[in-house]
Design goal:
By secondary structure, the protein is an alpha/beta fold. Helix content is 31%, strand content 30%. The strands form four sheets. It has a five-stranded parallel beta sheet, with helices on both faces. The radius of gyration is 20 Å and the shape is globular.
């Protein structure tokens, strides 16, 4: 079976060098696409469903981690097994150890041929093991979800009480609305803004979810999708369908929120 890969690296010279080294070390590997930003990496990976993805951690649009999270959420049901992910990073060795501990391989820039060869051997072993065990797409998907949960859990700790955001300052024209965080039912990413939804109204703030999350109490505000964070006490019920899809009913709002499969494990009976 032909093995395909996608390279997502925003530095053209590094991408070309990686592709040339892969051609020497793994001639049977076909590079299905090479892209330079996170959004294209997500789109092309979902379209091509390669066996391996090389994701630069820092790319325009979406980071490599954000692409991996989106892939885990959006990977098509019944498709090919979830790809093996290799992160390309310029982080120092301490940050690299955090990635290494989660069974996600990494390559440190500049990529050394010896280290790349070790990575290739690891990938080949995992692909061979997957084929030998006749691992199905659902099994591979479940393993990928568990891997991503562990990796996301290794990110910086949530805010301490002294750092937590207490009031949202939402500007509308010349007026600044002071919205207590306790009143927020959910936050939803919308382009370059975040919708701040309360029982009475909605506000838009120019902030990314990546910037907001560290300022929230993770015990109270649960991320249920890469673009949605809901206050747990505002959840009335969670309905799970046979397909595994989970839909939330809220207190104080008629809205229905969909939980991605990456976070569906949060909603289990006690």
């Amino acid at each position: 079976m032909q093995t395909t890969a996608l390279i997502a690296e925003d530095e053209p010279l590094l991408a070309q060098a990686l592709q040339a080294d892969l051609a020497q070390l793994w001639p049977e590997l076909t590079i299905a696409a090479a892209v330079g930003d996170g959004l294209k990496a997500l789109q092309r990976t979902l379209e091509l469903q390669p066996a391996v993805c090389f994701l630069d951690i820092r790319m325009p649009g979406m980071s490599g981690l954000e692409v991996a999270q989106a892939l885990a959420e959006d990977w098509p049901e019944g498709g090919k097994p979830f790809p093996l992910l290799v992160f390309i990073t310029a982080y120092d060795e301490y940050a690299v150890q955090a990635f290494e501990a989660q069974a996600v391989d990494y390559l440190l820039k500049p990529v050394e041929p010896t280290r790349l060869a070790q990575c290739m051997q690891r990938l080949q072993r995992q692909l061979a093991q997957r084929e030998a065990n006749a691992q199905s797409a659902p099994q591979a998907m479940q393993a990928a979800l568990e891997q991503m949960r562990a990796l996301l859990g290794a990110q910086p700790s949530p805010a301490t009480p002294a750092q937590r955001l207490e009031v949202i300052q939402a500007a509308v024209g010349n007026t600044v609305h002071m919205v207590p965080v306790d009143d927020v039912i959910y936050f939803e990413a919308a382009d370059k803004y975040i919708r701040v939804v309360t029982a009475e109204r909605e506000h838009l703030i120019r902030l990314s979810l990546r910037e907001l999350l560290p300022q929230l109490d993770a015990q109270r505000f649960w991320q249920i999708h890469r673009g949605t964070v809901v206050q747990a006490r505002c959840i009335s019920s969670a309905q799970r369908e046979e397909s595994g899809k989970v839909t939330l009913t809220l207190r104080g709002r008629p809205d229905k929120l969909t939980v991605s499969r990456l976070y569906a494990h949060l909603f289990k009976g006690m």
